[in-house]
Input
Amino acid sequence: QVQLVESGGGLVQPGGSLRLSCAASGSIFSINAMGWYRQAPGEQRELVATITSDGKTDYAGSVKGRFTISRDNAKNTVYLQMNSLKPEDTAVYYCNARSVITRGAFHLEVWGQGTLVTVSS
Output
């Protein structure tokens, strides 16, 4: 069974920075894409950023230039460096992994439990 565990959320002032981490575990052979999504209160979950196993990235327009996604394939870990944070970035941030191959199984999509990011003065 594959598990994604996020960390790094918290309270930060506008203009500040946070770094989220997400570690995947569970006898993993490979993960195609990993990414971050977020869901603000009363809103639908939306894409923040994704990164493929060969390093191709994609960002939502609202975070481009402020957020940077990266991953360590050897550790099955993805990171999200968030700079110049704004109140509208406040949301629960979810880690996502797609096309995960483990010992004896294929997982199309796996989600983490989410970590809360609050941007407020």
Remarks:
- The longest strand covers residues 28-39.
- The CA atoms of residues 79 and 108 lie 21 Å apart.
